[in-house]
Each structure stands twice: as C-alpha cells, then as structure tokens.
Design brief:
The complex is a heterodimer of chains A (338) and B (338). Chain A is an alpha/beta fold. Chain A has 11 helices and 14 strands. Chain B folds into 2 domains: 63 residues, Phospho-2-dehydro-3-deoxyheptonate aldolase, domain 1 (Alpha-Beta Plaits, 2-Layer Sandwich), CATH 3.30.70; 250 residues, Aldolase class I (TIM Barrel), CATH 3.20.20. In chain B, 36% of the residues lie in helices and 18% in strands. The chains are: A alpha/beta (338), B alpha/beta (338). At the A-B interface, helix 8, helix 10 and helix 11 of A face helix 8, helix 10 and helix 11 of B.
Chain lengths: 338, 338
C-alpha cells in the first residue's frame, strides 16, 4: 500500500500518518519525491483498511501495490534511486566503474591496483577480505587485515571501498571499514544476513544468486529495505545454464526487466559472469548499451599469480583500454563515465 | 587438418599430396598464397594414418591438426572473418546488417506496408515466415507458396533482399527459387538432412542456435552446411532456455565474443525471440551490437495486436525507427556503421 501525500503536506501531517500506521502494527516508509512525499506501508497480511487513512490531513490518494515486492518496486517509487557513496553517485545519469582485485592479497598489491585504477578513472575500489570460496581449502581471505589494507588504499587514492560481508558474525567488522557492503551471490537468500544489512546505514551491493529468478532477486532487496536501509545497488553477475563456454551466462535482459520493475540502480559484473578476461570488454559494452548504471570488474597486476579468479582478472593495461572504450559507448547513449 | 607446403614446393609435389589425401577419401581445398601453398583437408577419420603418409612426402612443410571438432567453421582453419556477399550487399563487414519484418507473412498489403517502412529506416533485408514452426499444430501455419510469391513481389517493389525460414528439406528447391537467404530455425538446428540439403544450394543460410544447444553443437551444425560446399553461413543467437521466465528465452550475450573467438562466420542477434517482449528488444539489440554482433534480426509489425503470431515481441514502426537511430550511435561507438 502506498499513501500519496499532498504536495503541500507538512512534516507534521506526514508524521501523523506514520504514527497511525505504526499503531496499526505495520511499518511506514516515507519516500521523498521531487514533488511530494509518499509513504509505503509494509507488514500487512491483508488489505489495509483504507478508509481510516484517507481521513488524515494531507493524504490525497491510496494506491495498492500489486507486486509481492513493495519498497523496491517502481509502482511505489517511480523515480530512479540515486545512491551517494562519498562523491560518487550510483544510479544517476553517469556510469560508475568499480574495479579491483578479487581478493586483497597484500598491501603492495592492493595499493598498486588502487593507484592505477584511480588514475584511469575508476570510481570505487573493490577487494575481498572475506572470501566465499567453493573449496574450504582455498585461500579464504586476509580478514580484518585485508579491510585495513583497503582503508589505507582509500586514504591514498580517495576511492570509496566495496567489500563483501560473508556472515552476520563479521558483518559489523566489515561495516566499520568499508563504504559499500557487498552481499555475494551465494548469500542472496541468507535472510538473517539481509536483515542485518538492512539495519546498516551503509549502502549494500546485492549480487543476484546464480540460480535466482528476477522476482527472488528483487525480494532479497526487499528484505534489506524492509529493515529501512533504502540504499541497495543490484548487481547482475550471470546465472547457471547448460551453456558451458563461460563460467555463468550473463543475463543481459535482466537489465531492462529490473529497470522496469524497480527504481534501484543496476550494475553488471562481467568478470564473474564470463570467468574469462577476454570477454570483459564486450560484455561491459553490452551492459552499458543495455542501460546498466555501472560495472564491477576484477583487475590484477599479475593475474597469473592471483590467489583467486586469475583467469577473469584484467591486467592494468587491459583496464586502461576498457575505460577508454567504455567512455565512447557511454557517450553514444548520452551518458558519461563518472 | 591443414597441410602447409614449403616455399619451394613444386606444382607437381602439391598435386601429389592432394592426390594422396583424396586417396583416403577425404576432401581438400587448395589455397595458393603469394609465397606458400596451404591445403585444407576435412572429413578426416584417421588422423594418425594420414599424418604418417603425408608428412614424409616431398614439399610438405608440416601438418597442423585442427583441435576443435568443427573444422571449416573454425577460426584456426579460416583466420579472416567471412564476408557473405549477396547481390551487391555484404554481411559480416564493417557495416551492421539489419533484417526486419513480420514474424509471418499475412497478406501482400500488410507485407508491402512493413517493407516500405523498414526500408525507409535503413534495413537492407526483409524477413517474413511463410512456413511457420508453431508450438501448437492448431496455430496459423503460414501461407506456404502463396507467401513466397508475396515475398518475391515485395523484393521487386522495394529492392530489399528476402530472408525466410525453410522447414523441411522437401521445400528447399521451391524456397530457393523465391528467396535470397534461407533461415534454419532454432527447432531445426540439428535437423541434419535439412542442414545437408541447404548446404548443397547457393543461397546463404542464417542458422539459428537451438534453444538448448551448446556453442559446440551449434558450430557443428554450421559445419554440416559448410561441409556440403555452401560457405555462406550466418549464425544467429536467439536466446536459450534457462530457469528464468521473465523473458521468453535468455539472450546469451556472451555467445557474441565466444563465436567471434572460435569462428570466422558472421553472427547476428535476434532480440525479438530472445526477449519475447517488445519492451526489451531495444536494450538487447543495443547490447548485441555493443558486444560485437554483425547484425540484427528484428520483428516489426504495423499493428502487433492483430499479428497472427508473436505480436507481443514485434516492434511498432515508430519504435523500430527509434531503435535504428540508437543502433547507429552504438555502432559508431564500436567503430562500425549501420
């Protein structure tokens, strides 16, 4: 249910409606728009009794949201959400490039990559400190030490940092250091982790589960938003199919589909989708042409020696070339790289 | 298998090698470069025996086995991109080719109207089905030969070249008289008698990927056509079957760089069938071109609501015109033209 407030509605009137919603045992979510505020109602098992809300001052209309996802839906919030991460705007007119190593391996490696990508125009630095590896015997990440290295790289370059929180136990630790908390594909339906992320004040980059439908993906974002963290960035990273020439199959049509049904920013991870560095450029171009708000790519100065995901990491030279090509494709659809 | 002859090999030596290979019952093709002569051999069943016999012959420099099961379709065999030339038009060169038209030919009046619109917008080829592979035997099955006559008249009137699907090997000679390019549909990708039959005709063949075919199976189907002597095969990615149901199929965008890597054949994208929804066609078409596809196959209908098949995925003329303009910009951004 969406309560549409009059464009002249006062803050007191909005607060009154929210208070009443709370008294009904439901949750209210004020959504500021350019012209007016709307208030989303969640938590109702049945239809909300509209008569009682319609009587409040400042209320002009009530709209039933037909989809199972509410706060994420464009029905509830027609304007696209722009998320501020420092000076970087995710979901605005311009395109965001997040780059960095799969895993933080050492101070030298991370600093080298951060400095290089920063001069080439990347907007954020990614790097895993807690790694969800398929095998328990593979390198599991440097943990807190890795987060500290990322913070040092941020101090040197000014790039905001993105890193994955793997479980509720280490969530607070990751949150303390990073600017954007990543929830990985394998955790897309880890509901306790999603709720925890929903209680954070920091933006969340939510990756699509490798066999999640669009609806399941959006409902996972709904979990985070229902806890009042409205800053969720969606990330398409490839789905599992029979087609075995790439690690996963990039679902490029998820971009227009998500764009239609939600207002959240959408970025694409061509590195994990393909698992092959020679495909990162064409898939990044395709993603931007299809309307994505950004890309997240893996870069390593010496991919052959990377502790994880070497085959899909770009070299620094390849990343530079990628940035030049993306600038051109972005311009062709009247966008820029930030 | 590729046999390279030494620089000073005499004609007699070359002839002797070819004779020997033919003695095994294998096919050969001679490529005489400025310095070196190369002999392509295909249909090899006993590689070791062939190598043992040919390697010691005078004039032979070396034998290079092709590692992939597809030979004529592979880039190893044919490093340069194949350009399909037909009636003064080229497919697979710098210029992006657009094939557009209705899913099915419904009437002469309707087809001529659509043909004029797409020509005006810059399309060079007209598509339209007259033999329709419909999921249900009770759905409209196409106009048959009458439809072919209508297509031929549309070509006379507009100068557009004609692409239509051929469903059975029995129809191949008839269809060949009327149309320029044969289309082999997704459901027939492994109809081997049909593949062999079109391989013996001169018309270029647009080969759609089977909806659950791997890259290798797809290229092996192309190999069937090539091995019969028809070198003009155009591949077309049209979406694969996945668990995702928001779109009719899932466009496998990574097929573009993969095919470009492994094969020299031109590659098209069919965003209409991939999406099954006209609202997503534009994003997917742009993504296809951005990823490096050579052309697009698009469904256009003047009034999709009354179309006899696939109305939901057909673009209206207005949207088609808009898309052509957008594609032009994307093409330029990737160093190509429309």
């Amino acid at each position: 249910m969406l309560v549409v407030m009059h464009r002249d509605a006062t803050q007191d009137q909005i607060d009154e409606v929210c208070k009443f919603i709370k008294e009904m045992g439901l949750s209210s979510h004020p959504i500021p728009g350019t012209q007016r505020v709307a208030i989303g109602i969640t938590g109702n098992k049945e239809m909300v009794d509209t008569n009682r809300i319609e009587g409040f001052d400042g209320v002009i209309n009530l709209i039933h949201v037909t989809q199972p996802y509410k706060l994420t839906s464009r029905e509830m919030k027609p304007e696209s959400t722009v998320i501020n991460v420092g000076d970087v705007k995710v979901g605005g007119k311009d395109i965001v490039v997040i780059a960095g190593p799969c895993a933080v391996e050492s101070r030298e490696q991370t600093t080298e990559i951060a400095k290089a990508i920063s001069t080439m125009g990347a907007n954020m630095l990614r790097g895993g400190a807690f790694k969800p590896r398929t095998s328990p015997y593979s390198f599991q990440g440097l943990g807190e030490e890795g987060l500290k290295i990322l913070v040092e790289a941020r101090e040197k370059t000014g790039l905001p940092i993105v890193s994955e929180a793997l479980d509720t136990d280490n969530f607070d630790l990751v949150e303390k250091y990073v600017d954007v908390i990543q929830i990985g594909a394998r955790n897309m339906q880890n509901f306790s982790l999603l709720r925890k992320a929903g209680q954070s004040k920091k933006p969340v980059l939510l990756k699509r589960g490798m066999s999640a439908t669009i609806k399941e993906f959006v409902l996972a974002a709904e979990y985070i938003m229902s806890e009042r963290n409205y800053n969720v960035i969606l990330c398409e990273r490839g789905i599992r199919t029979f087609s075995d020439h790439t690690r996963f199959t990039l679902d490029i049509s998820s971009i227009p589909e998500l764009r239609r049904i939600t207002h959240l920013p959408i970025i694409v991870d061509p590195s994990h989708a393909s698992g092959r560095r020679d495909m990162v450029l064409p898939l990044s171009r395709a993603a931007i042409a299809a309307g994505a708000d950004g890309i997240i790519v893996e870069v390593h100065p010496d991919p052959a020696k990377a502790l994880s995901d070497g085959p899909q990491s770009l070299t620094i030279e390849m990343f530079e070339k990628l940035m030049q090509k993306l600038e051109i494709i972005a311009k062709s659809i009247e966008r820029n790289i930030q | 298998m590729i046999i390279t002859m030494s620089v000073d090999a005499s004609n007699k030596e070359i002839e002797r090698v070819i004779e020997k290979v033919k003695g095994f019952g294998y096919n050969t093709k001679l490529f005489q470069g400025e310095k070196k002569t190369v002999i392509h051999v295909w249909g090899v069943t006993d590689k070791e025996r062939l190598m043992k016999r040919i390697e010691p012959l005078p004039g032979v420099e070396k034998l290079i086995p092709i590692l992939h099961p597809f030979k004529l379709a592979s880039r190893e065999f044919h490093p340069e991109d194949t350009v399909v030339s037909i009636d003064g038009r080229s497919i697979g060169e710098k210029e992006i080719t657009v094939i557009a038209g209705p899913c099915a030919v419904e009437s002469e009046e309707n087809l001529l109207e659509i043909a004029a619109i797409i020509k005006e917008a810059g399309a060079k080829f007209l598509r339209g089905g007259v033999f329709k592979p419909r999921t249900s035997p009770y759905s409209f099955q196409g106009l048959g030969e009458k439809g072919l006559e209508i297509l031929a008249r549309a070509r006379e009137r507009t100068g557009l070249l004609i692409v239509t699907e051929v469903l059975s090997e029995i129809d191949v000679p008839l269809v060949s008289q009327y149309v320029d390019i044969f289309q082999i549909g997704t459901r027939n990708m492994q109809n081997f008698p049909l593949l062999k039959t079109v391989g013996r005709f001169k018309n270029p063949v647009l080969l759609k990927r089977g909806m659950s075919a791997t890259m290798e199976e797809w290229l092996m189907s192309a190999e069937y056509i090539l091995s019969e002597g028809n070198p003009n095969v155009i591949l077309c990615e049209r979406g694969i079957r996945t668990f995702e149901k928001y779109t009719r199929n899932t466009l496998d965008i990574s097929a573009v760089p993969v095919i470009n890597h492994f094969s020299h054949l031109p590659l098209f994208i069919d965003p209409s069938h991939a999406a099954g929804d006209w609202r997503y066609v534009s994003a997917l078409a742009k993504a296809g071109i951005a990823a490096g596809a050579d052309g697009l196959l698009l469904e256009v209908h003047t009034d999709p609501t009354v179309a006899l098949s696939d109305g939901k995925q057909s673009l209206k003329p207005k949207n088609f015109n808009q898309l052509m303009k957008e594609i032009k910009k994307i093409a330029e951004a990737t160093g190509r033209t429309v």
